[in-house]
């Protein structure tokens, strides 16, 4: 990299002052500063893009390795399942007709040829659903409380007033 010390910068400034002149020097310095800023931002953007592309490649490699591991696990589970099903079918091959149990009423009805209907059960009431709404005028007429009060507030509200104000 270029080694610029204070003495070299002073020399460059003196030459620029003589060559460019004192009137145009501030404008030239601003332009040079803006160009250097743009160059630095461009270099930073290029670095960031390179880093992003490298991370993307790493993520793609990681994705491929995870997918191959998942395929391996899936194939091993499938093989194990197939082996288990085969051994289960071999073990239960002679047991299918040998099960003894009492015939139920539904089995008897099916053997006669009559249809079997399921037993009716009354649906349970869902208390979360609002069934009806009571109007406010009816609540006010019948004395149903619509506002919640604490016990202390209710006692204070209905406490008898002293009849003698001299107390």
From TrEMBL:
Pfam families: TatA_B_E. Its main location: membrane. It is found in: Cell membrane; Membrane. One of its GO terms (cellular component) is TAT protein transport complex. Residues 70-101, 143-167 are annotated as: Disordered. The keyword Cell membrane applies. GO terms for molecular function: protein transmembrane transporter activity. It is a single-pass membrane protein. The keyword Hydrolase does not apply. GO terms for biological process: protein transport by the Tat complex. The Tat system comprises two distinct complexes: a TatABC complex, containing multiple copies of TatA, TatB and TatC subunits, and a separate TatA complex, containing only TatA subunits. Substrates initially bind to the TatABC complex, which probably triggers association of the separate TatA complex to form the active translocon. Belongs to the TatB family. Part of the twin-arginine translocation (Tat) system that transports large folded proteins containing a characteristic twin-arginine motif in their signal peptide across membranes. Together with TatC, TatB is part of a receptor directly interacting with Tat signal peptides. TatB may form an oligomeric binding site that transiently accommodates folded Tat precursor proteins before their translocation. NCBIfam families: tatB. This is Sec-independent protein translocase protein TatB. It comes from Hydrogenophaga intermedia. The lineage of its organism: Bacteria, Pseudomonadati, Pseudomonadota, Betaproteobacteria, Burkholderiales. The gene is tatB.
């Amino acid at each position: 990299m270029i080694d610029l010390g204070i003495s070299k910068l002073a020399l460059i400034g003196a030459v620029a002052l003589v060559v460019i002149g004192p009137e145009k020097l501030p404008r030239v310095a601003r332009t040079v500063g803006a160009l250097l800023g743009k160059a630095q931002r461009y270099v930073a953007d290029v670095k960031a893009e390179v880093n992003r592309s490298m991370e993307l490649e790493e993520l793609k490699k990681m994705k491929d390795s995870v997918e191959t591991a998942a395929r391996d696990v899936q194939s091993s589970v499938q093989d194990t399942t197939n082996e288990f099903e085969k051994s289960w079918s071999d073990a239960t091959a002679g047991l299918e007709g040998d099960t003894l149990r009492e015939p139920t009423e539904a089995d008897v009805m099916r053997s006669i040829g009559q249809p079997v209907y399921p037993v009716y059960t009354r649906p349970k009431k869902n208390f979360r659903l609002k069934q009806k709404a009571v109007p406010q005028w009816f609540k006010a007429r019948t004395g149903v409380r619509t506002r919640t009060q604490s016990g202390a507030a209710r006692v204070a509200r209905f406490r008898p007033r002293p009849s003698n104000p001299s107390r």
